[in-house]
Amino acid sequence: MTGSPLLVAADLHKSYGPTPALEGASLAVWAGEVVAIMGPSGSGKSTLLHCLAGIVVPDSGQVRYDGRELSGMPDAARSALRRTRFGFVFQFGQLVPELTCVENVALPLRLERVPRREAERRAAQWLDRLEVGDVAGKRPGEVSGGQGQRVAVARALVTTPQVVFADEPTGALDSLNGERVMRLLTAAARETGAAVVLVTHEPRVAGYSDREVVVRDGRTRDLERTW
Amino acid sequence: MVSEVLLGARFAVAGGRDGWTRTLFTAVGVGVGVALLLLAASVPGALQSREQRGQARAGFHAGDVLPAGPGTVLIASVVTTFRDQEVYGNLVRAEGPDAPVPPGLVALPRAGEAVVSPALRDLLDSPEGPLFAPRLGGARVTGVIGDEGLLGPGELAFYLGSDTLGSGRAVRLDRFGEPQPAHEPFGPMLTLLIVIIFVVLLLPITVFIGAAVRFGGERRDRRLAALRLIGADRRMTRRIATGETAVAALLGLAAGGLLFLAGRALVPLVTLWDISLYAGDVRPWPPLVVAIALAVPALAVVVNLAALRGVAVEPLGVTRRGVPPRRRIWWRLLLPATGLALLAPMAGGGGVAAAPAEYQAAAGTVLVLVGAVALLPWLIDLLVRRLGAGPVGWQLAVRRLQLDSATSARLVGGIAVAVAGTIGLQMLFAAVENRSRTAGDDVTRAQAIVRTFGRTDLPESLARLRGTPGVAGAVGTYEIAAALPRGGPDRLQLLVGDCAELAAFADLGRCADGDTFLVRSAESGSVTASQLRPGGRVALGDDGRPWTVPTGARRVPARAQGPVAPRDAILATPGALDPGTLPERETATFVRFVPGDPDALERVRSTVLAADPLAQVAALTPVRESNRFASIRRGLYLGIVVTLLLIASSMLVGVLEQLRERRRLLAMLVALGTPRRSLGLSVLWQTVLPVLVGLVLAVGFGLGLGVVLLRIAVVRVTISWAAVGWSAGLGAAAVLLTTALSLPALWRLTRPDGLRTE
Amino acid sequence: MMCIVLSMSLGQTFLGLLESGPRHGYDLKRTYDDRFGNARPLHYGQVYATLSRLLKDGLVELDGVEPGEGPERKRYAITSAGVTDVGRWLGTPEKPEPYLQNTLYTKIVLAVLTGRPAADLLDVQRAEHLRLMRELTRRKAEGDLAEQLICDHALFHLEADLRWLELTSARLDDLAARVRS
Questions:
Q1: Does A1 fall in a domain?
Q2: pLDDT digits (tens, 9 = 90+) for B103-138
């Protein structure tokens, strides 16, 4: 944790209607590290992740990525940032059911106007790397949950992003499959130098992180506080 | 078993707010369709009651001439038109205390009295009233014709009392109405047209009803899954679904009935094809009502069960059956092939002669159009299967269609039928219209012709016309046909008038009363004219009364700039031939208007009728286009637009449902950085592709149908590309509208909130 | 094992109980038995041995001796050094290992009783647990199957502890209400 952080969130507030989701959350992510965001359900973990990734604009507070203020950017610029610098893995419902697995993985590249053939070649390589090369031609409905999640990880990494945001990536998996997804995700991220922001409520999944941040009632707990 | 159906019924009405809205949605959709079906079912009845009222008031007498008596009336038609609307005018004179009274009247008007229709009363009260009022000859309006004496609420009609009407120009009646309704059925061609119009408009409505039944269907299916979890088997779920759909369909029937009744109240406000109808006329034919009441719920249940066939309702959820079954082609081809086989023998040029042929043609048309619907899913499948990957939006759309094209195919089928039918009908209309379009009048010489019968006041009449504002000039003569005594059918006209009038037709040179002239135009080929000599004899009028051309008659050339085109004629001054001795004493006056005065024609009509209610004023028009066909065409376009709007609305509902169902996926795609433009394009492609196939098919089938219909009607086959363009354009507009309207929802659903788990 | 843990923390527990006010040794035993003793009451010998050790270390002082005989007449009060000692103890996470809950529970109750932020205590403890879990996860990734199985065993137990910590922090308000009543 030396040098300046890659991604910084300072004093974020966000409400959905009358319900507050974040009430003063702060967080810094350095390049290449794996940060676990933990906390009980409804504590605001996912909202924090969405703010960090520029999916949601906080009501107040700042998110800076690589020295740039995210909340001031227009939607198109944030979309472009998500496309090129970030990767995403969610709990479920993230693969397009009509597309084959390899097409799903190639999707972010296609959005970047990489030619289809090239995009699918690189997608296939990532599928191999995540040990799901054999399901490339199948549709998401035809593969197991663990395989689907590894396909999703491949999609998150295919653009070699700087940060991978993973929201309960093992939430729908049994422990063996969950561990496998986490092992492959963190190993690949470390290899490519991507930072991982991992939202989870499972301690064993958080065990794959370098450090953790606890969110409670919309606030991050500073664990360094002295007594 | 019954209890499960009832359970489903309870779900439909007691499924919470969500269940209610779904049921309501379906009911409204089905209701709109049912209302339109009921309206269509009312058309024959409405036309029939119109016809019956027309018969009941007819002044028609067959058989021997009646003697005048206390129970007879004399009646004569006053032929006039206001603007473009024909007026039903009558001159009546009671011949005794027991004279019959026409329907809708309390008593016959006496001289100086008039009874008018409500529409005419409104016209007289309006600022335009003075343009019409003189035609009643200054009579006082003493009453209003009741509904039973009118064809429709918009009809202009009057009965004008007279004490001078003689039996020569009138019919004597002892009762009104045709004793034996001379029921003239629609001609075979018209029947065929009406059947096809019904098919073209009703098939899409049926498609729409089918789609409306499935509004919210996917969620309903998911509830069935929950029932499976607590132990319902597949058959039970099917029965429950049946109950639920049936309730929605029955509510839809009720809604449709109410909509129909509400819409019927608006009918009197509309005048279409010069026809206005009373709300009471719009009465659906009972057997059709029964058919609709039975068919709609049945259709609803069948559609729902067919949709359930495509999915597996399991205890843990609803899954689409893996790969949709490959569509078989043979029966899809069988339908249009059978249809063509039925139509083919008639297309040989024999035409539609007998009743069975009408039905054969109608059945053939229906089969061809239904065949288009059946063929469509197969074609869409065929196309989509072969489509390669393109940009992301395209790829998403194509892949989605590859998995499930049935839903859109059903709706597009409706569009295809509407468009194909429109093209076919438009081609037929265009052709028939061309045939019925007669050469126009030459309006550079005169713009109206006034004819009177049995009168001797031509000079006064001419003076009145020349004094009417808006009239630039008038030339009038007595007119009678003249033929050689033993000549053929070739006739020429004998005009009797003052020198001044006659000079309009020919270069007379000198002229004094008592002169006679023989006019021969340069290009004339008339035998009569060439054989006629001064001193020769001709036969005048229908009874061929002989008349000798005075020996002093001179030959003169026709005038190039006369009120009519140069023609052969005999011109006689009253001194040579006393018009009072002519049998019919018919006059023809050519009237020129001051350019740019739209009311001049109405004033002339008024001037003429005020003096002589039985005179006729004919307006000359450069192009005589059949009004009727123009309005039928407008009506058809209107029907098609309404139909397409219905289909577009159900497509919209489908797209919105699909978007809502996929909101998480959409939010995820946005999180990945997918531009919304790509998502919008995927929605567009997903609607455009099937519709494109549908339109191509529709144009093909429409042109084919049009050609066959033209052959049947024995009309030269010409393809109306304007009709093709319009119809296909309307179909395309429906798609664009659907996509445009779904975009706000797409925008809303792709907000990041969608990522939050429920 | 439990006894060892107990003897190690009994002094701090007494100190924590004394923070709310001076007490007799008898009172201390009664309160301790009620709150933490489960079915195993303390021996008087244990009580007085601990108290005299605390007295010797200057963490408690005699508040007064009532007339009469026996050690039970003495009243003990906590010194400021004693208060500091309790704070330090509560702020130091326990070494993560199985069957910790008794010590942790004692600490939480004392933190609540003495008005210290119990939630922080739990966070510090979960951070410590996670640190060990990370290390085990790392070892697991590098080790052979046997190593993996052994690490997993430890990981699952630590996870159970962590879940308990989560649950407890969610129920702190309930606990405070119960303890203070």
A1: no
A2: 888 888 888 888 888 888 888 888 887 877 788 777
Place C1 in a pLDDT band, splitting at 50, 70 and 90.
very low
Q: Quick check: A183 and C129 CB within 8 A?
A: no
Question: Quick check: B668 and A82 CB within 8 A?
Answer: no
Candidates B688, B709, B701; CA nearest to B727 is: B701
Of C91, C120, C130, the CB nearest to A207: C130
Write out chain A residues lying below 8 Å of B753, CB-based.
Answer: 16
Q: Which of A214, A225, A226 is best to mutate for the C interface (most C CBs within 10 A)?
A: A214
Q: Which of B319, B399, B678 sits opposite A99 (nearest CB)?
A: B399
Asked if the Cβ–Cβ distance from B669 to A81 is below 8 Å, we say no
Query: A55–B670: do the CB atoms touch at under 8 Å?
Result: yes
Q: Look up residue B403 and give its two tokens.
A: 């998995």
Q: How far is residue B84's CA from residue B105's CA, in Å, rounded to a whole number? A: 26
Q: What is the pLDDT of residues C124-134, one digit of tens each?
A: 888 888 889 99
C69-112 pLDDT, tens digit each:
665 678 888 888 888 888 888 888 877 776 666 778 888 888 88
pLDDT over threshold 90, residue A163: yes
> Residue A74 sits in a domain of what CATH number?
3.40.50.300
Mean local confidence (pLDDT), B283-289: 81
pLDDT, position B434: 64
User: In terms of residue numbers, what domain contains A14?
Assistant: 7-221
Given a contact as 3+ CB pairs under 8 Å, which chains touch C?
A: A
Q: Is A223 on the interface with C (CB under 8 A)?
A: yes
B57-97 pLDDT, tens per residue?
877 666 667 777 788 888 887 777 787 778 888 888 888 88
pLDDT greater than 80 at residue B12: no
Taking CB atoms and an 8 Å limit, are A46 and B669 in contact across chains?
Answer: no
Chains that touch A (3 or more CB pairs under 8 A): B, C
Alpha-carbon separation of residue A188 from A34, A156, A171, B498, C137 (angstroms): 12, 11, 20, 114, 16
Of the candidates B197, B198, B203, B215, the residue with the CA atom closest to the CA atom of residue B373:
B203
CATH 1.10.10.10 is right for the domain spanning C1-92: yes
On whether any CB of chain A is under 8 Å from the CB of B675, the answer is yes
Q: Give chain C as a 3 state SS string.
A: CHHHHHHHHHHHHHHHHHCCCCEEHHHHHHHHHHHHCCCCCCCHHHHHHHHHHHHHHCCEEEEEECCCCCHHHEEEEECHHHHHHHHHHHHCCCCCCCCCHHHHHHHHHHHHHCCCCHHHHHHHHHHHHHHHHHHHHHHHHHCCHHHHHHHHHHHHHHHHHHHHHHHHHHCHHHHHHHHHC
End-to-end CA distance of chain A: 24
DSSP annotation of B580: G
Higher pLDDT, residue B426 or A10 = A10
Domain ranges of chain C: 1-92, 99-181
pLDDT over 60 at B273, yes or no: no
- How many domains are contained in chain A? 1
* B633 CA: distance to closest CA in chain A (Å): 44
**A203 contact C CB<8A:** yes
Chain A stretch 153-212, residues whose beta carbon is closer than 8 A to a beta carbon of chain B: 155
Of all residues in chain A, what percent carry a pLDDT higher than 70?
96
